[in-house]
Write a structure and sequence with these properties.
Put_GTT3, transmembrane helix
């Protein structure tokens, strides 16, 4: 640290930066004011012969030269403090130094303590180390969010976007509309009767049509898939009487004859028309009625199931005992399951009639 340091300390940072640019000081952008003052002081002292003729630095070099001729002000301070009485006795012997130099010495003494503390790390620190430290601090600060509120807002925005996307995908899938349509279709007695008939037909066909072995797929150890055999229905059984005898028996007892009875013994049609014989006298409400009475259908089916599969009535030897037992054993619950289905149909018919009247 030189004695011209007070001159640099009085300047502002833009003025110091201008001097640093004129004197070709390297990497001064990364310094703060104290570091820039220390670096400029060392730079100007080392290049005194080059920049001594600059007018802006004339005061700096004048302070530097004047203080070196008179000696250090630190050495004069004890001399002034030792004989305070002598100064009072000889008031005429006051110092003839100019006011500018006195102010410079006071500035130098005031700046001595902080500059001594700041010049040591400034001389040891290099521009590259300062830049590396700043880059580490900036990268560390960039990894963390500015505040918890920003994190909360970001989470809320992402949650809202995700919820809107899921709602849009759910709406576009049409699952709600399809579920409502399916509910409207199944909420009728006709749909319930159709389901019972399809279940019975499926079990009868599964029992009557055997499966023929086709091939075996190889195992895939990589995907943990074992080998399994592939079987297909043997449709050649359709050419034999072993299929048509039981199937025709089920068709007559569980579907054909009950539909005929429901068509001719249509109690709902009789109640709506009042016993009219021609279609010309039918009202608009009659046209919306079903062509088959569900109550008559279920009663006729229950009677046929009981007579054939419980009493083994064989329609004047049209069907063998083998066909009766084959149909009876193929349906879940046997004749009890079929009678349970007819009971559900009767209850559903009565409940639907009550809802129409209310």
């Amino acid at each position: 640290m030189s004695n011209g340091l007070p001159f640099l300390n009085k300047l502002r940072k833009p003025e110091l930066a201008e001097i640093a640019e004129q004197t070709d000081l390297q990497d001064y952008d990364d310094y703060n004011k104290a570091e820039l003052i220390a670096a400029l002081d060392k730079h100007l002292v080392d290049n005194r012969t080059i920049f001594s003729g600059d007018k802006k630095l004339a005061e700096f070099y004048s302070r530097l030269s004047s203080t070196t001729r008179r000696g250090s002000p630190v050495k004069r301070e004890p001399r002034a403090d030792v004989s305070p009485v002598a100064e009072k006795k000889t008031p005429g012997r006051r110092s003839t130094k100019p006011k500018e130099e006195e102010s410079a010495e006071s500035d130098d003494a005031a700046f001595k303590t902080p500059s001594a503390k700041t010049s040591a790390p400034a001389t040891r620190a290099t521009p590259r180390s300062v830049r590396s430290v700043r880059s580490v601090v900036e990268s560390a600060s960039a990894q963390f969010p500015p505040s918890p509120a920003v994190v909360t807002d970001a989470i809320d925005r992402q949650t809202t976007k995700m919820r809107e996307g899921l709602e849009h995908a759910w709406t576009e899938s049409g699952f709600i509309e399809r579920s409502h349509a399916l509910r409207a279709t199944l909420s009728s007695l006709k749909a319930i009767e159709t389901i019972f008939v399809l279940v019975e037909a499926t079990y009868v066909l599964y029992e009557l049509v055997p499966l023929r072995y086709l091939t075996t797929t190889p195992a895939v150890p990589a995907a943990y898939l074992p080998s399994f055999s592939i079987k297909v229905p043997d449709l050649f059984v359709l050419l034999t009487g072993a299929f048509w005898a039981p199937f025709s028996l089920w068709f007559l007892t569980n579907l054909g004859l009950p539909l005929i009875a429901a068509y001719f013994f249509n109690l709902s049609w009789q109640a709506a028309t009042g016993g009219s014989q021609g279609p010309a006298r039918r009202t608009r409400s009659v046209s919306s009625l079903a062509s088959f009475d569900p109550l008559s259908f279920n009663i006729a089916k229950a009677l046929l199931v009981y007579k054939v599969y419980v009493d083994h009535f064989d329609y004047v030897d049209l069907f063998s005992t083998y066909a009766i037992q084959k149909v009876n054993f193929s349906i879940p619950g046997q004749y009890s399951g079929m009678l349970t289905g007819t009971a559900i149909g009767v209850i559903g018919t009565l409940y639907e009639a009550i809802l129409r009247r209310s």
